[in-house]
Each structure stands twice: as C-alpha cells, then as structure tokens.
Amino acid sequence: MPVVKPKPPPPSHHTLHVGSAVGRADDFWALAYCPELDEIEKDSDPEHTEFTYILHYVGREKLVEARYRGRLDAIWQRSDGVLLAAGENPSVLEFETDRMREIPLAVPGIFSSIWGANDENIFCGGTVVPFAMVQHRGQWHDIALPDGTEDIREIRGFSEKDVYFVGGHGMVLHFDGRSVTRLRVPTPRILTGIAALDATRMCVSGYQGTLLVGNAGGWRPLITNTSDPLLTVAALDGKAYYGVESSVWSTDGVAPPEPEYDFPARWVSALTDGLVFSHGEAAMLCKDGVLTELSVSL
C-alpha cells in the first residue's frame, strides 16, 4: 500500500524579488513580488495571479507599506511624494502611506511604463495592444501612435515636448508635444529600457546585448560583447548602468562599457542619488560607489 506523505507546512517567512525603485538613497520606494507566496495562495484561490508589495526603505529599515492584488511593473513619484504605479490592471494607482486610490483608464493593453516630465505632464504606455497616454493638468488624453507600432516597453524624456517611447523590434518613437514619429535606429532587436544619460542623450537597452546612445537627431550602437538581454538601463551622473548574469556594467556613452560592480543584476533602477540593483532574491543599494545589501524578507 503506498505511503502518502503529509504536505509540508508553508514556510514561516518568504523572500521578495525587488523591481522598480524611486526616491533618494536614504528614503526610497520599490515594487516587489513573492513568487513562492503566490503559489501558496493559488492552493486556496485558483483565481489568484500575483501580489505586488510596495516597499519603503528608510535608512536601513524596510517597511512593507501595502500589498496590491495584481501585477504592478512601473512606478514614478510626484514632487509631493505621491507614488504613481501601473501594471496589469486597467488603472493607474495613486499611493500615499495612509491611502491608496485607483484611477480607472480605458486602455486596450497592459501598462508597462509610467514617467513624468513634471507633476502636470505624466506619460504612460503599454503592450499587448500598444497604447500611450498623457495626463496633462489632471486629465488623461490618448496619444496617437504611428501605424505598425508593436508595443511600448518604456518611456523617458527630457521634457513634456521631448519624450521617447521604446519597444518592439528596433522601435523608438519620439513625441514632440503634438505628434509621435518613429525614429530610425541601427538595430532590429527588441528594445526594453531607456534612460536619460545626460541633458541631450538617451541610452536604450534591449535583447541580445543591444545598447544605443542618441536622440531624435540620430543613434549609434555601443558594443557590449554579450548576448544577454539588457532588460533595464539606469542613468546617474552622466553614466548608464545595466546588469548581466555576472556583474553591473557602465558607460559614459562614448567609451565601451566596462564592468563596475560585482553583482549579477537583472534589474537596475536609478534614484536621485544612487542606484538599486536586484537579481532574484537579492538586492543592493549603490550609493557613492558602495554596495549595501537590502533586506528582502517578508
């Protein structure tokens, strides 16, 4: 007769995977996920998909400020401290420590990015069915996209009249405040990340080690000597940072990238005065060239 072993009890604690982060090195917010706990939740609720945790790091202390039912992938912070986040649900989430409000939006796809040129001009976009919107003085408006737009993975810009959308196979779009045009870029690869390298140059990352530097006037590729997907790119003090399986690399946009930090980051985020690196169940804060391990326990 077969012996049925009892199901082991769930672990008493869990570990978070950190995603996008915003703020200052001594006071920042981050999105996080717990695949292990999601699997446990599915045992009792087959309809469950995923929780997103909103973390607040103050000094060396980590606070779990909220748990949101659904996937949030993008986060941005207004000057008054209010967080804006977006993801799989058709709404933009406004979050403060003592309140959470969802703003429903009629979008055809799934949010992948949110970014503000300032508090009065906030852009968002998404994938599956590509779309882009701008919130101008509190009102959301659709942005018409060129025919053939595949998707929008990330949005960044220099101002509300100089905004870049990346995604698809070699797709970089430029919004001048009135209309969107597709720019010519020297790659057919899928593009996933973009960051303002300085006051005039953007850095774009993508699959198969793709890294581009430029703006609406033109783009040039940088040789990365890797075929890893560069899913995210972050910029700080005139340098762009991206992670691969072995380390974090950096470039000033002119010289070839070089390894800078011995941490196998798959996700990089820029704070106003630092960087956040994460890879699975590990995350680091980088401030003034020093890496400090972040608490990721739940």
- Main sheet summary: 4 strands, antiparallel
The Rg value, from CA coordinates, equals 19 Å
Instruction: Tell me, rounded to a whole number, the average pLDDT.
Output: 94
Helix amount: under 10%
**Uncertain runs with pLDDT below 50, 5 residues or more?**
none
Task: Give the beta-strand count.
Answer: 28
Secondary-structure blueprint:
Layout: E1 17-24, E2 27-33, H1 35-44, E3 51-58, E4 61-69, E5 72-77, E6 83-87, E7 91-96, E8 99-104, E9 110-118, E10 121-127, E11 131-136, E12 139-142, E13 154-159, E14 162-167, E15 171-175, E16 180-183, E17 191-196, E18 202-206, E19 210-215, E20 218-221, E21 234-236, E22 239-243, E23 248-251, E24 258-261, E25 267-270, E26 275-279, E27 282-287, E28 290-293
Antiparallel strand pairs: 1-2, 2-3, 3-4, 5-6, 6-7, 7-8, 9-10, 10-11, 11-12, 13-14, 14-15, 15-16, 17-18, 18-19, 19-20, 21-22, 22-23, 23-24, 25-26, 26-27, 27-28
Feature tags:
globular, 298 residues, mainly beta, four-stranded antiparallel β-sheet
Describe the structure.
By secondary structure, this protein is mainly beta. The chain is about 5% helix and about 55% strand. It is built from 1 helix and 28 strands. It has one helix at about 35-45, and strands at about 15-25, 25-35, 50-60, 60-70, 70-75, 85, 90-95, 100-105, 110-120, 120-125, 130-135, 140, 155-160, 160-165, 170-175, 180-185, 190-195, 200-205, 210-215, 220, 235, 240-245, 250, 260, 265-270, 275-280, 280-285, 290-295. The strands form 7 sheets. Strands 1-2-3-4 form a 4-stranded antiparallel sheet, with no helix packed on it. A hairpin with a 5-residue loop joins strand 17 and strand 18 (about 200-205). The chain is globular, with a radius of gyration of 19 Å.
